[in-house]
Design brief:
This protein is mainly α and 296 residues long. The protein is built from 13 helices and no strands. The protein is globular.
């Protein structure tokens, strides 16, 4: 039992590290592959890998009729909406700042759970919301005039956080008949359809030249790690782990994202970013306090 829990903690921490490193990886890839084409390719290859993993685990990939429409909506929110918004957002703002904004997701998820699932609006959730808002305000205060003149990057990232949060609430609100790994494959695979439509309409991917070896290597990391491995591990493990354990990997993501963006992309690690990161990580941590108490 102890060994099983150790493996689970190691996997969730791996998720935190890989999804954190994914922020500078995506920024690097977007320098050579436009956003719609990038997401379409990644979703397609990631879904194939997830389907293979699910089949090897003995899971049935068939989706029952009652799960099809909810699956499509959950996919468009959790995977497609989040990833497409972040791709465009990273083209318009610093990656370190983008990671901080996107990781207000648990704050929005807690708010949506109160509105749509009837969960109690506790003092912890109120404090989480206020801390998250303070973190966003700190980022905006860094360069308010720039935000007023060019708000798109911030709004794309905020849209990504809200989309991910809404999809998460939908996933948690439903009793699915399809197993977790197979569910992950469909969540990613369905997202490939609108991504390919966007690529064909706006980017003509058949006209693009082949990226260099460095970009292809980072793209391979993105597909195998953040897309396939992380979605498989996340959907499979989170439902079986204590909230405190899941929080370890979750809290790592923006920290790793900001630090790796500073080291790998040269994003300046300003005092405002550090304060905003601290406020938002604290906001995320508070979202896990109530579930931990309810388990006692």
């Amino acid at each position: 039992m102890a060994r099983s829990q150790t493996v689970a903690v190691a996997l969730v921490m791996t998720i935190g590290i890989l999804w954190g490193l994914n922020w500078p990886a995506v920024k690097f890839i977007l320098g050579s592959i436009p956003p719609w084409t990038f997401r379409a390719l990644a979703f397609t290859l990631g879904a194939l890998l997830l389907a293979i993993i699910a089949r090897r685990a003995g899971e049935d990939l068939r989706v029952e009729s009652q799960d099809r429409n909810p699956m499509a909506v959950a996919s468009l929110l959790t995977v497609f909406g989040f990833n497409v918004f972040t791709a465009f957002g990273q083209l318009l703002t610093e990656t370190s700042k983008a990671a901080i904004i996107a990781f207000t997701m648990p704050m929005w998820a807690a708010l949506f759970a109160v509105i749509f699932l009837g969960e109690k609006f506790s003092l912890n959730r109120l404090a989480s919301l206020l801390l998250g808002m303070a973190g966003l305000a700190t980022l905006l205060a860094t360069d308010a005039s720039s935000f007023i003149d060019h708000p798109a990057g911030f709004l794309f990232m905020l849209g990504a956080a809200i989309s991910w949060a809404a999809g998460t609430v939908l996933l948690k609100a439903r009793d699915w008949t399809i197993a977790p790994l197979a569910r992950s494959a469909w969540l990613v695979g369905v997202s490939a359809i609108p991504a390919w439509a966007g690529a064909v309409l706006f980017e003509q991917p058949w006209m693009l030249s082949l990226p260099n070896a460095s970009v292809l290597a980072v793209f391979a990391f993105h597909v195998v790690g953040p897309v396939a491995l992380c979605y498989a591990a996340w959907v499979s493990l989170v439902s079986r782990l204590p909230a405190s354990t899941a929080a370890i990997g979750t809290l790592l993501i923006p920290v790793v994202g900001v630090l790796s963006s500073s080291l790998l992309l040269g994003d300046v690690l300003t005092l405002n970013k550090i304060i905003a990161l601290g406020l938002i990580v604290s906001s995320v941590a508070l979202t896990f306090v109530q579930p931990m108490q309810s388990r006692r």
